[in-house]
Every structure is written in C-alpha cells, then in structure tokens.
Design brief:
This protein is mostly helical and 338 residues long. It has helices at 2-32, 53-62, 69-78, 98-105, 123-132, 140-146, 159-162, 187-203, 214-227, 231-246, 254-261, 295-302, 327-337; strands spanning 43-47, 88-92, 113-116, 177-180, 311-314, 321-324.
Length: 338
C-alpha cells in the first residue's frame, strides 16, 4: 500500500516537474523570441503617465508587439523593471523581443515625452506641466514666450498688441497632445509646434464677415471657453457677450477676473480689483486672451447665436446654463439655482 502511494507521489512530482519545465520553457520563449524577427515595420507605442506594467503588457499585446502579456509582466516584476518604465511615445518593432522592448521603454533617450494642453488652460499651467515632466525649470516656458521672435512666420499674430501683454502668446498656444523629444527639448520647440497647429486649425474655419479683429475674436473665445461647456451654449453666450460689448455694458465674465487672481472663486475683494481684466467693473474686452481656447470656442466667437437674452448663469450641480432676458429674471434665477 505504501509502495503504491510512493509511486503516485513520484508520478505526481514527475508530472509537476515536467509541467513546470514546459511552462518555464514557454515563458523563456515568450521573452526571448520576437513576434516576427523578419518584420521591418516601425510601430508607434504610447505609454501614459501612471500606467502599470500590467496595463503596458496588455497594450503591447494588443499592438502585437509581444507574444504574451503575462510573461511580460512577470519579467518586469522578477527584474524590478516596472518602476523604470518611462511615460512617452516609443518607436518599437515586432522584431524586438521583450528584453529589447524593455530596454527601449526604460531609456529616456528613446522616449518622446507627451504633453496634453487642455482647452482653457493658461501659459502658467503649461509651464507647470513642463516642470512636472522634468523638461524645464519653473518659469522657463514663460520666459520663452516673452522672448518669442518668430512673429514674421505667423500672420495671425498681432505683434504690436501682443508684445504689450504680460503673456504675449496667451490664447494662441493651441490645445492638443504634443510629443516632445527630451534629449534636446527647448521651450521654443513647443511654441512653434502649437502655433503651427493653431494656424492649421484656423485655416479650416469657414470664412466670416466679422467686424472684430482677430485678436478680439481670440480674446472673446478665451472667455467663452471657461464660461460654459457645450458648443450650443458657447454660441449663445458669445451672442450675449458681443451684445453687451456693443452696448457698452461690462461683460461681467468670471473667467477674466479669475485669470488675474489665479483662483477658482471670486471674493468681494476681487470685485474691486482695479484692472482691465475685471470685466465686472469695467466695460470692454480685457487687453488679451485669458486662456488658450479650442477651435469650438473660436468658432462660437466668430459665429455667435443671436437671441433676446442678456444674462446667463451656470448651475453649480449640473453645469446647465440658465438664460434670462431681464435683470429681474436673472436675479430670480440666481436665487433659484445658486
């Protein structure tokens, strides 16, 4: 009886050993062998900041750059490589095995850093993003903006007006995702990338007969961008703000005041700030844009929706925009929604 039991244990151990050997050999095969050693295709592979090794393995498998995502994850874990993987865009190939891929995605010199400039953020925000990516020291992007001297390349830039502003290119750094080479990055690189993109976007706009200058349109678009969310509301608010401007009313836009207070809330003291950016106190557009707007907001500024409305507010809970024709109606809306 004991002999039979020992035999079963022996066979079980032998089977387990064989099974583990097969698994190990398969694992080694997944690590050592590329998907296609004869491939000459270059594939762009993006790693977002904060991605885990498991997520990266899954994405590599979906791109058919590795044979097995679990083997990739285990190899990174066994070799303590997970935390060394860099966010960025890499040029990979199916002729690279897991080891070569990991060599690439842990090497800063092979990465293109990714920066996403969201609609409605400011040049100060962009400077901080570049600092967070460890591409610049604080203030270096802002200095590059002040020192910009490529005016002759962009007809849409009004040098005479923009050079008088504290942040000369505010409003013209087009919101999008950009890939940057960290090896020799200069803030000027991003400036030209965004201005080229801006130029491309505005050339796609339908022709308009607007009576306002392009600088005024971008300034209005930058306000609209941070006032309301949807395209239909942006067109409606555009109509209201242009109408206020034409009738010498203060625009009363929170976005312009928040631009100079660098805050998210407006206090009673803020309302008394003596600045042309305080459109609660002074009529007219502020001297320049207060954010970098999307093409949607630029379009809304060029093609406003005409209406009988003079007032609007945004509800705190849902972000719905409530319109009013009279001040009395607007005050009633304020009591109801705010």
């Amino acid at each position: 009886m004991l002999h039979k039991r020992n035999k079963r244990i022996y066979f079980a151990l032998t089977f387990t050993a064989i099974f583990l050997s097969i698994v190990y050999l398969k694992y080694v095969s997944y690590i050592e062998n590329p998907v296609d050693e004869n491939s000459e295709e270059t594939i762009s592979f993006q790693i977002k900041k904060g991605s885990t090794a498991k997520e990266i393995g899954k994405n590599l498998k979906e791109k058919n750059l590795i044979k097995n995502q679990t083997a990739f994850y285990l190899y990174t874990k066994f070799n303590n490589l997970g935390e060394k993987i860099i966010a960025g865009r890499f040029l990979l190939s199916k002729n690279m095995n897991v080891k070569k891929i990991l060599t690439a995605i842990t090497d800063p010199s092979q990465a293109e850093f990714i920066i996403t400039i969201q609609e409605g953020i400011t040049l100060k925000d962009i400077d901080q993003k570049l600092v967070d990516l460890t591409l610049i020291n604080p203030g270096k992007f802002l200095k590059a903006v002040k020192d910009f001297n490529g005016w002759q390349y962009y007809q849409f830039l009004d040098k005479k007006i923009l050079e008088t502003l504290a942040s000369p290119l505010e409003g013209y750094i087009y919101p999008d995702t950009y890939f940057l080479d960290p090896a020799d990055f200069k803030p000027e690189d991003l400036i030209y990338l965004t201005l080229d993109n801006f130029e491309k976007k505005i050339t796609e706009l339908p022709k308009s007969q607007s009576k306002y200058s392009f600088h005024q349109i971008i300034t209005m678009a930058s306000i609209i961008e941070n006032e309301v969310r949807s395209f239909s509301d942006r067109k409606m608010v555009s109509g209201i703000l242009w109408k206020r401007l034409e009738n010498a009313w203060p625009l009363g836009a929170d976005a312009t005041l928040l631009y100079i207070t660098n805050d998210r809330k407006i206090t009673s003291e803020d309302l008394e700030i003596d600045s042309p950016y305080n459109t609660r106190k002074y009529a007219g557009l502020p001297p320049g844009p207060v954010s970098n707007p999307s093409i949607e907001s630029i379009t809304a500024a060029i093609f406003p929706e005409q209406s009988n409305y003079w007032f609007y507010l945004t509800t705190l809970d849902t972000g719905e925009v409530i319109y009013a024709e009279t001040n009395e109606e607007h005050n009633a809306n304020r009591k109801k929604y705010l």
